[in-house]
Amino acid sequence: MSAITPSVSPLEKLRSLRSLTGPRRILLHTLLIGVALVMLYPLLWMLSSSLKPDTEIFTHPGLIPNKLHPRNYSEGWSGSGNSFSLYITNSLIVTIGAVIGNVISCSLAAYAFARFEFRGKKIWFGLMLGTIMLPVQAVLIPQYTIFYNLTWINTFLPLIVPKFLATDAFFIFLMVQFIRSIPRELDQAAMMDGANPLQIYWKIILPLMKPALVTTTIFTFVWTYDDFLHQLVYLQQNARFTVPLGLTLFLDKTSGSSYGAMFAMSALALAPTLICFFVFQKRLVEGLATTGMKG
Amino acid sequence: MTTAKTDGAAGEGPAAPASPAGPRERARLRRRAARRRGGGWWPYAFLAPWFVGLFGLTIYPMLDSLYLSFTDFDLLTPARWIGGQNYTHMFSDDPVFWDSVHATLLYVLVSVPLKLALALGVAILLNRPLKGIGVYRAAFYLPSLLGGAVAIAIVWRQVFGGDGLFNDFLGWFGVKGQDWISSPDTSIYTLILLAVWQFGTPMVIFLAGLKQLPRDVYEAAAIDGAGTLTRFFRITLPLLTPIVFFNLVLQVIDGFKTFTPAYVVSNGTGGPLNSTMLYSLYLYKKGFTDLQMGYASALAWVLFLVIAGFTAVNFVASRYWVHYDD
């Protein structure tokens, strides 16, 4: 049908539909900028509030502080029971452990699913997909009792060890899709040269799937860092608290006097995610579009 | 190298002449290749960590929580079998359970359609050759990435507080605000707004779908003189239904699991008057604050069945409105 070139005028019409001109283009930009401002305003407000003295936060609603008040940051940093540096260290231990675990265990499983035929593969694969939809709440309590019996409560182990067991099946799925796009001929050539599957995985597949590994790293980092529920359940001692738990301490004691410090620490808590976002922005959004990722 | 399964290996002896590959030869070669891909125990070795996780941290816990849901269990003393009491108590005389069901259904049923509509609308606006499209996409996606963070929930609490940002905004129009967080009529809507604010993920997925729509259909429609609305309802929307469906399923599941904002905004109480007692928050309180782990397990199983039910209904209903080409 498209082989027959249609007369010129409808095509021109279509082109004029797609690339807007003049006032319609300006209208569209205005609309989009408006939406973008609404989207980003709460973040800007938090940032500006973190730089205002407490007395000014609610009486002086403008975005630009009358005068900068960076003391909020130093006060917040040492503010809630422990120094914030402890919470950040704890968060880093948890997130880095989780990233390493997910990258190793999920890539191993994905390689098996993408490259081997074995009995019951379809059933196992289906089960794996099913676990993506399983709500964490459904297994939270038995998992808690398992870790309780192992005396792992108040350690970082319940937050890290499951990642080494490929429980984030979503990433297995993502990597399977990626490995399928790597030509099998590469594996076969290596096999002819006498490489075993472990060597093929390590020397061929893993280096070639770097984009998928980067996506996994970013999202594991962000989601683990923000995974409030599990941290709340497993970490009960102040000295083990992570950044999100440290932040909630501010809520308990806000007597109306430490809003500035609270906003300052909230802004700091978002910093790792924001840095991640701005560095990998393009890859994040593209990767999301092609794989259809959850929020 | 690969010690493939050796059953039936008699046929593939050394006498496999490569010369005139007849159909039987080829079939045999294909079988051999398949067996090599099988790789004997190799796939199981690669899957070993996942198997441990699947059985140890998913299947066993699922069954265990099913068992626990029929017990009285406080973690410290052994679980005591009480039959279906947890379930009958839940449905017949636990008003807080019904409060949480009410809050959660309201939350899911209002936030998901709004979120998807906004995501689709903005995606269509962005599906034009436009300067700075990358910046827009980033700006719209950013809140989704930050969404689960406690910091955002804290900000939300302040934005909708008595002297927060939202009331300042209303003030410009001469509307006198109120404390939206501490009023039981409006508190849940602040959480809904937070969810809608995070429309970036479905938006990006819609955008990817829009890019794949066949141009020739639009060309044909243009020739027929179809207007913007006609094109949207007759072409774009029907062709996009698989992606609408995909986003719908994901967002509904996500909505039922929401925990962090409800916890933070209400300071862990689910108040005022249980109006923000999302189901996950109630489950957490029962299990980890009141140490009623048997009851919480029953709640968990109900949640699991409800999510599975909603997903199944979505799949069945999709037959009537989702169009797959060919």
From TrEMBL, chain A:
Query: Where this protein primarily resides, as one coarse class?
Result: membrane
By its UniProt entry, which InterPro entries does this protein fall under? Answer: MetI-like, MetI-like_sf
PROSITE patterns for this protein: ABC_TM1
What are the alphabetically sorted keywords of the record? Answer: Cell membrane, Membrane, Transmembrane, Transmembrane helix, Transport
This protein's source sits in the domain of life called Bacteria
Q: Which Gene3D superfamilies match?
A: MetI-like
Does the record carry Transmembrane as a key word? yes
Question: What is the protein name stated in its UniProt record?
Answer: Sugar ABC transporter permease
Please give the organism.
Streptomyces roseochromogenus subsp. oscitans DS 12.976
**Highest classification ranks of the organism:** Bacteria, Bacillati, Actinomycetota, Actinomycetes, Kitasatosporales
UniProtKB/TrEMBL annotation, chain B:
Using the record's annotation, list all stretches that form the ABC transmembrane type-1 domain. Answer: 101-314
Stretch list, region Disordered: 1-29
Q: Superkingdom, according to UniProt? A: Bacteria
* Single biological process term from Gene Ontology: transmembrane transport
Cellular component aspect of the GO annotation:
plasma membrane
Membrane topology per the entry is: Multi-pass membrane protein
Please give the start and end residues of each transmembrane region: 41-63, 105-126, 138-156, 188-210, 231-250, 296-317
Predominant location of this chain? Answer: membrane
Similarity-based family: Belongs to the binding-protein-dependent transport system permease family.
PANTHER family recorded for this chain?
ABC TRANSPORTER PERMEASE PROTEIN, ABC TRANSPORTER PERMEASE PROTEIN YESP-RELATED
Q: Which named protein is this?
A: ABC transporter permease
Q: Which organism is it from?
A: Streptomyces roseochromogenus subsp. oscitans DS 12.976
